[in-house]
Protein 1
Amino acid sequence: MAARNARSAATSVDAREVEQFARLASRWWDSKGPMAALHKFNPVRLGYIRDQAAARFHRDAKKLDCLKGLRILDIGCGGGILSEPLARLGADMVGVDPATENIEAARAHAEQSSVEVDYRATTAEALAEAKEKFDIVLAMEVVEHVMDVKSFVATCASMVKLDGLLIAATINRTLKSFALAIVGAEYVLRWVPRGTHRWDKFVTPVELEIALEACGLNIIGERGVIYNLLADRWQLSSDMDVNYMLVAQRPAAK
């Protein structure tokens, strides 16, 4: 374990990416700060996760405790802005992040909000080595930040229970994503700090699907996410040229 950031012996964690987000730890919950774009994105990804979980596990998505009894892993949880609302919906949440600073911020906010989340300063690889299993594994806005996508996906998939789900959100590698997610979001609109993303690390839907299917998971859904300028909000779309979410299921044993 490094002095400030947790890692396992074999990991897909990119140290530079971890350090970059660790520097923003104190501002994770500032909805008008450097994480403002993620706060605006949060409702659509939260709704997608809730609806996919409700459909798979036969729950009523309208109930406030619709995720009760489901063990969910949030990989790269940062300050916990997704883990907390999922816990409020009843999920047994485990949030992991290799940056100790992020976990400290997440724990502090959860305590202030009286929300129970099991936050750990560790990696997905360390949990997989410990044979941890989950009903749902989340890799939201993290695939584009790892060093080895195939290895990372395999690690995530290994923790999905039989009949469980893996849900990922990431950015497609297209000219459109370069124009909007990097030039537009980082340099023109300044929605996120410069250097947050590298276009060459973006992952196409086909690449992600192949990696998931190689691990024995079946792709059961995918949706694009676009920003509605008039409504000032993110929404689901058939357009997957930039942001997209994908859900895969591990088949039940025969």
Note: Strands lie at 71-75, 92-96, 118-120, 134-140, 160-171, 218-228, 233-237, 243-249.
Protein 2
Amino acid sequence: MATILYQDQLIPREQGKVDMEDRGYQFGDGIYEAIRVYGGRLFLLDLHMKRLERSARELALQLPYGIDQLTDHLKRLIKKNQIDDGLVYFQITRGASPRQHQFPENIETVLTGSATALPREEVLRPNGIKASLVDDIRWLRCDIKTLNLLGNVLAKQKALEKGSEEAIMHRGGVVTEGSSCNVFIVKDGRLVTHPADHFILNGITRLYVIDQLAPRLGIPVVEKTFSTEDLLEADEVFITSTGAEVKPVTRVEERTIASGKPGPITKRLMDAFDNEVARVKGSSALS
């Protein structure tokens, strides 16, 4: 029987309820995070929590608990559900009040969360995936990790209907990001990815690649815009996300990227990520 988090309590999933007038339900008025778990440990936790705090500030939303207390709740959730490799999802809404567009006063924000087993072999695609190009029709604050994901959902569905695993979105021919990931190209030995402005979500795995893995491997990174044509002409293409980790893209629409196989730089990054996961799981086994 799955256990979920409701405020500071662990309860059976079937007892979980959403109030009809919860603003997350009616307006998408809330924020969320999804954190990978390896060996029972929250991966890149500090980066996720910093982004959560930023999202809350941007929406003027009060977090119901301090970060340390919230982390303790998530750890209890993982332990209760006996998650080894998996994913923790949690969201915070502005709470329930009579329906009105402006912020209500004096209501309690609502925290809910779940922990799900997710073996790595279910999401890894070491030989690469196909992606489709889709117009980016979303609002102009994609940098906030809010519950408003309908644009992403429509893009993903359109890609799946084309026989692709992921949608790569663009605004007027400028690549922004995937429906649930960030997009990198490799050109002349350098990583290129869209700047972390209001057009994209600054993904945690994106940050980890840029700030940790690439420097460790001596791979230069440039944060600048690039076009769909640049994407199709790239030496390598890969995506990053909490769930997908580092995943090569070998076809876009019906166009083969370079040789049609994961490139050497992508494979080095994948190996480095694998090594870090192995280190985390090893330290977990020793603790």
Note: The helical segments are 23-27, 45-58, 67-80, 150-161, 204-217, 228-232, 264-286.
